[in-house]
Write a structure and sequence with these properties.
Enzyme class: hydrolase
Cofactor: Mn(2+); Co(2+); Ni(2+)
Radius of gyration: 23 Å
Order of helices and strands: HEHEEEEHEHHHEHEEEHEEEHEEHEHEH
CATH superfamily of the largest domain: Zn peptidases
Structural class: alpha+beta
CATH class of the largest domain: Alpha Beta
CATH architecture of the largest domain: 3-Layer(aba) Sandwich
Bound molecules: glyoxylic acid, manganese (II) ion
Shape: elongated
Distance between the termini: 7 Å
CATH topology of the largest domain: Aminopeptidase
Catalytic activity: (S)-ureidoglycolate + H2O + 2 H(+) = glyoxylate + 2 NH4(+) + CO2
Oligomer: single chain
Keywords: Endoplasmic reticulum, Hydrolase, Manganese, Membrane, Metal-binding, Purine metabolism, Signal, Transmembrane, Transmembrane helix
Strand content: 15-25%
Number of domains: 2
Protein name: Ureidoglycolate hydrolase
């Protein structure tokens, strides 16, 4: 079915990996953390500047640029059969606090370079090709991961919930969006939803964020499935009081309830017996946060994931039971136990896997089928489109920290496979 091959055209098929590296370095300067760390949070000034940078590059690549009400950005190259469902690719450019330059970014700047590769190759797409920059893949500001792609996939519950969503500074989602130039006229986000069938395929290029490809010396990871993520917000409340004057038997310390629950999260994850079950308490805030005041409130956020959805749900149930038991034993109240998201895993489309395998083979690049333990916008695009994902190696598997790194050669390989796969999918 993918009869379109590298030999179908005779112009050179080559990646300008030096320019790509330069762009990655430039984009990383739009950051609220000192280099080499990158912090780029949704709708901040740095995010707006970074978006402008990407839109400019899309324009230079000859793409027509459109933005939706939450700032998902689309760059389109019309095919010669523009009414056929398009082939899309893309990723995100937001970066969690003190992270690196490559997470998401490789799938956006790499996609623009893939389009440039195809143009230099004199390729003419049959189906239109589209690059998508997704709004807020990371949950940093509003606690919701993959905000843009969830909405594209038609998440009405989220569209409603955003009307009452605020960030840690009590700034509403809509005020923040407006400050970045989005959601100007509406508070109805249904305009963002895409119809199923808008795309015949969606593929995302991303760094592996794990060590396998580097250790095994494999160039391209072809993702067969994305693990099921969940996140939970928990609040405990006690009476607080003076750290010297309130004697130990009279305390109900909300902070101790939270740390006890953090240890219970680890225990319940390990009880699953599978190496694929993981759990993390990445946020733990104590109120009032003074050395001489017993914490009267504790806020924690728990991330738990598994490739097996049922097993992950069992962990969530156990965490909930522990939260209740700990609250009772410590005479604090469990004032919130909110499951923010509890998503099923997603499977890649067989025909897209085959296109990526064929492209790697034609380019003489080794490849390997693997699962994605991190989540990606692809998890939600899979709800409205056949989906595929590909990984490139990254140094020691580092991600979500400043040491994150992918070599120019590895990015070049990823962009070549992406470009050729887009060409095949466009012609099929
Ligand atoms: C994405 O950043 C994830 O946490 O998997
Ligand atoms: Mn990330
Ligand atoms: Mn990412
Ligand atoms: Mn991610």
């Amino acid at each position: 079915t993918h009869s379109f091959t590298l030999t179908s055209l005779s112009a050179p098929f080559s990646v300008d990996s030096q320019t790509l590296q330069k762009q990655i370095d430039e984009l990383s300067t739009f950051s609220d953390a000192p280099a080499p760390a990158v912090t780029r949070v949704l709708y901040t000034d740095k995010d707006v500047l970074a978006r402008r940078y990407i839109k400019n590059l899309m324009g230079l690549a000859g793409l027509s640029v459109r933005e939706d009400a939450v700032g998902n950005i689309f760059g389109r190259w019309d095919g010669y059969e523009p009414d056929l469902p398009a082939v899309a690719t893309g990723s995100h450019i937001d970066a969690i606090p003190y992270s690196g330059k490559y997470d998401g970014v490789v799938g956006v700047l790499g996609a623009i370079e893939a389009i440039n590769v195809l143009k230099r190759w004199a390729f003419k797409p049959k189906r239109s090709l589209e690059i998508i920059l997704f709004t807020s893949e990371e949950p940093t500001r509003f606690g919701i991961s993959c905000l843009g792609s969830r909405l594209l996939a038609g998440d009405e519950t989220l569209a409603k919930a955003l009307k009452a969503t605020v960030d840690g500074q009590n700034i509403s989602f809509f005020d923040a969006a407006r400050s970045a130039g989005y959601a100007r006229y509406e508070d109805d986000l249904s305009s963002v939803f895409l119809k199923k069938g808008t795309y015949s395929a969606f593929i995302e290029l991303h760094i592996e964020q794990g060590p396998i490809l580097e250790v095994e010396g494999v160039a391209i990871g072809i993702v067969t499935a994305i693990a099921a993520p969940a996140s939970i917000k928990v609040d405990f409340e006690g009476s607080g009081g003076h750290a010297g004057a309130v004697l130990m038997p009279n305390r109900n310390d909300a902070g101790l309830a939270a740390v006890e629950l953090a240890l219970a999260v680890e225990k319940h994850v390990l009880e699953s017996g599978s190496i694929d079950t993981v759990g993390t308490v990445g946020i733990l805030d104590l109120h009032p946060g003074a050395i001489n005041s017993i914490p009267s409130k504790a806020h924690m956020e728990i991330d738990t994931r598994d490739i097996d959805e049922k097993r992950r749900n069992t962990v969530i149930q156990k965490i909930h039971q522990s939260a209740n038991t700990i609250a009772k034993n410590r005479r604090v109240s469990l004032s919130e136990f909110k499951i923010v998201n509890q998503d099923p895993p997603a499977l890649s489309e067989k025909s897209i896997i085959e296109a990526m395998e064929a492209a790697s083979k034609e380019l003489n690049l080794t490849n390997k089928l693997m699962i994605s333990r991190a989540y990606h916008d692809s998890l939600f695009m899979a709800r409205i489109s056949p989906m595929g994902m590909m990984f490139i190696p990254c140094y020691k598997g580092y991600s979500h920290k400043p040491e994150e790194y992918a070599s120019q050669d590895d990015m070049e390989n990823g962009v070549m496979v992406l470009a050729l796969t887009l060409a095949k999918l466009s012609m099929s």
